[in-house]
Specification:
It is a single chain. The protein is an alpha/beta fold. It has helices at about 1-20, 25, 85-95, 115-130, 150-160, 175-180, 195-200, 220-230, 250-265, and strands spanning about 30, 45-50, 55-60, 70-75, 80, 100, 140-145, 165-170, 210-215, 235-240. Strands 2-3-6-4-7-8-9-10 form an 8-stranded mixed β-sheet, sandwiched between helices. The protein has a two-stranded parallel ribbon with strand order 1-5. It is globular.
Length: about 270
């Protein structure tokens, strides 16, 4: 028992000394691009934008002729854009909307070093790019955040309200997630990286859709429900029956895509 307390003490002291960012426990960037939208038969624009702090990030813009909606897609904490090309193909075929997805700094071909503040700047730069385009002028922009990207989308929605907000497998905050990952080590209050969507969601009044797998082994389903309960109307919640954290669009089937289509169709034009 004394040994256990000693180990906990060492860990807490270490976290205090390093500033408790826990970067290596939160972000898992992969530099290698293993495929592009072209790999799954989609025409796309390979885009580079510069953030407000001078970092050059990479994104892919996939247009759909005649679409009046653009999804601004923020992915999760691991891999890079190329790990999402098959889901991109499915969303393209099922929803028929334009999509712009970015790699955060340090991910894929994006430059810089990832951080919470940095991901927010990356999101803002992506939105500036979309708003500056001539072809989707006047179209709706819907933020779509998955897992870590849900927190990025929530923060952007606070700063620049979207026409709609879709959160898939969202978590409440890093502090709440430390209780899941390290339940016997109360370090949440020490962690500098916050991603505190729970404290922000009440500031957002855009139409909201939350989707969450009821077998999610990474982010508890209950966290998605709590975030939904704290959100303003209009809002919808869709349970992806049988889905884990990384197989939502595969396990969700037609019901999953119908929930997305119906939400997009409900947005004001």
């Amino acid at each position: 028992m004394r040994l256990e307390y000693a180990v906990i003490g060492v860990v807490v002291v270490h976290l205090l000394l390093v500033g408790c960012e826990m970067k290596d426990f939160i972000f898992f960037p992969e530099p290698l691009i293993s495929g592009t939208p072209q790999s799954v038969g989609l025409a796309f624009e390979d885009v580079y934008v510069t953030t407000s702090d001078g970092v050059r990030i990479n994104g892919w813009y996939v247009p759909v002729a005649g679409s009046t909606t653009t999804l601004l897609w923020f992915h999760g904490n691991a891999g890079n854009l190329s790990d999402r090309v098959h889901q991109l193909r499915q969303l393209h075929d099922q929803l028929g909307v334009n999509m712009f997805m970015i790699d955060y700094r340090e991910y894929g071909r994006s430059e810089g070093a990832v951080s919470e503040a940095g991901t927010y700047r990356d999101a803002e730069a992506a939105l500036v790019f979309l708003r500056g385009r001539s072809d989707p002028s006047g179209t709706r922009i819907v933020y779509y955040g998955q897992s870590l990207g849900s927190a990025v989308a929530v923060e952007l929605a606070r700063r620049a309200p979207p026409d709609g907000l879709i959160l898939e497998s969202p978590f409440l905050s890093i502090q709440e997630m430390t209780k899941v990952v390290m339940p016997y080590l109360p370090i949440g209050v020490l962690v500098l990286t916050k991603y505190d969507s729970l404290s922000k969601i009440g500031e957002i009044h855009a139409p909201l859709l939350i989707l969450h797998g009821d077998r999610d082994e990474v982010v508890p389903y209950a966290q998605g429900r709590r975030l939904f309960d704290a959100a303003n109307e209009p809002k919808r919640f869709y349970t992806i029956s049988g889905a884990h954290h990384n197989d939502t669009y595969m396990m969700g089937g037609e019901g999953y895509f119908t929930a997305l289509r119906e939400f997009l169709a409900s947005l004001p034009r």
